[in-house]
Structures are given as structure tokens and as C-alpha cells.
């Protein structure tokens, strides 16, 4: 299991990531709000602006202050 740093000491398993998307689109905002209402959202922004939404295979949503590009680069590193 490889852990990916998603900012400020927070990590997620690379095997569980389905998608890393920008939170700007309306469907992504809606998905994040629904996850918050269901208790399936994990806010890993540490009080900063959310720059990416990580969709996990367990239907959890992880909010990160790092850009999707930065997280994508970290998943490619070995």
C-alpha cells in the first residue's frame, strides 16, 4: 500500500483513489455537498481553500488544499 501526501501531513492510499478533480464545476460541488450531508466527506484542507476533490472507491470524498496536478504528480512518483 502506497500512501500519497495530500498536503499538511495528510495522506491517502493510492490504491483507493478513483479520481482527483477540481472543485470548480457545479457537479463536483454538488457531489461534495452530498458527501458532507451523508458524513462521507473528509476535510484535509486544514482551513485553507479547497483546490482538489479526491474521490475514493469507498464513496468517500477527500478535500485537499493541493491542486489536482500536484496530487497527480505525487501518485506518479515511485
Topology overview:
Layout: E1 3-7, E2 10-13, E3 17-21, H1 26-38, E4 41-43, E5 52-56, E6 61-64, H2 68-76
Parallel strand pairs: 4-6
Antiparallel strand pairs: 1-2, 3-5, 5-6
List the main descriptive attributes of the protein structure presented here.
single chain; 6 strands; 78 residues; 28% helix; alpha+beta; four-stranded mixed β-sheet; 33% strand; globular; two-stranded antiparallel sheet
Describe it.
The chain has about 80 residues and is α+β, with helices and mostly antiparallel strands. It has one domain. About 30% of the residues lie in helices and about 35% in strands. The chain has helices at about 25-40, 70-75; strands spanning about 5, 10-15, 15-20, 40-45, 50-55, 60-65. The strands form two sheets. It has a four-stranded mixed β-sheet with strand order 3-5-6-4, sandwiched between helices. The longest helix has 13 residues, at about 25-40. It is globular.
